[in-house]
Please model this.
Amino acid sequence: MLHHFAISISDIPLPERFTYPFCYTPHPLCVLAAEEMQAYLGKQDEWKEELDQGKMFGVLVVQTKEGEVGYLAAFSGILAGKNRHPYFVPPVYDLLQPEGFFKIEEENISAINRRIKQLEEDEAYTRVTSELAQILQTAQEELAIAKTRLKEAKTIREQRRKEEVLDAREEEDLIRESQFQKAEYKRLERSWREKTSSLQAQIDDWEKQIRALKAERKARSAALQQRLFEQFKMLNYRGEVKTLCEIFEQTAHKTPPAGAGECAAPKLLQQAYLKGWKPIAMAEFWWGASPKTEIRHHGHYYPACKGKCEPILQHMLQGLQVEENPMLKSMQCAAVREPEIVYEDEWLLVINKPAGMLSVPGKEDAGSVYSLMRERYPDADGPMIVHRLDMATSGLLIIAKTKQVHQKLQAQFKNRLIKKRYIALLDGIVPEAQGTIELPLCLDPLDRPRQMVHDEHGKPAITDFQMIERTDSRTRIAFYPRTGRTHQLRVHAAHLQGLHCPIVGDELYGKKADRLYLHAETLEFVHPMTGETIKITKEADF
Model:
């Protein structure tokens, strides 16, 4: 299980602290370990089809009690229908044990599913359901005709009362006619109810059985999931143990998501702790094709996911000396720089936000455009950020000095009246000279702040683009977003169905560099107070 490096690593110094798992540059030892694992994967012909479809793998460099340095390997989830393979660490808990409670109860739930399907597809049930639907349709049509006749007869009676002077007997006749017609309509309704009641009773019996089975399935599934999560007893470096239920009890959702504890990172750390080995550095990489909704590039390194792994790793890393969050360092460095003011009058200003600076305050203790502007204009009725740029994006940002200006500018953004032009450097060659990308976007709930392409849950996102220049391996491009979704340009650039060329330096959807090469270059809007068209350009410094 402990792999020794194929080449000498004596000239590679060990890191002073363990990898911060949610934002990192892989340590050279992790890169070396990953390359050795990738060579191993390339020889596994029996897994080729599954590996081609894409899977996350991880390596953990460890030091034994004797001071020996090696690495462990793991895969996320299941590989080739199994949890255990000789080259990789075992799962924290093997839910695929043939005699284990999970497989036994899973079969019981599968039997319920088969029974539900059998009832729903029963020939008698479908026949009665179809027959009832036809009768109800006929009843609806006949009752509609009868109701129309009632209304017509009522109209004739009312017209007669207007045009004639009726004696008492004639008025009584009209009343009796009305009562008779209403009674006839009631009898017709009752007749149709009698025709449908027996069929409806049969259907109700079937559906009662189906509902009961579905309720049992739901209860069994919840109980099975709870029992399963209790089997995941996660260690940390201090030797403390917590179940997944205890770990996620402290989160907003309270319960662990499906698949929690089965990613590569928790498996690796658990095994190191069980062996008494010290974790030195860790990295996870994607192998194979990208999923349809997410963006994953073959061979690229990725941080641990936020939804499933962050609460687990926060527990498992306790006792280890872990690196500081490099993103927080970047934000703190950016916060000391004063944004350049490109345009200013008594109502608003436009600044050039540096890459790495937040638009508005976040959870981390770092400065933002908002906080800096509050310091600069302490007496203003504001200042208020009208729109936002991603922390990593540089460029033009409008700030209103009064609430009235803020509201009017926001209305222009909402109605898509403000024209925007972004400049980006893409990692790859875009063959088209120009075009439009339409990919609906939504938040990946298990990996914030990453966005995903999703036809059902995604909101419309549209970007026009124009190629500016191509080099041997990169494309300089102009983006003209029609909508303003989170990470829209980054996802539209990187996704397979978009340009399939991530923005240089995009560590979420591509590869890390010295910065994200995306800049908001031009803004054009109508001045909310003067009515003048304002067009401001600040060229990118890359």
Summary: The first helix runs from residue 28 to 42. The longest strand covers residues 278-287. The mean pLDDT is 92.
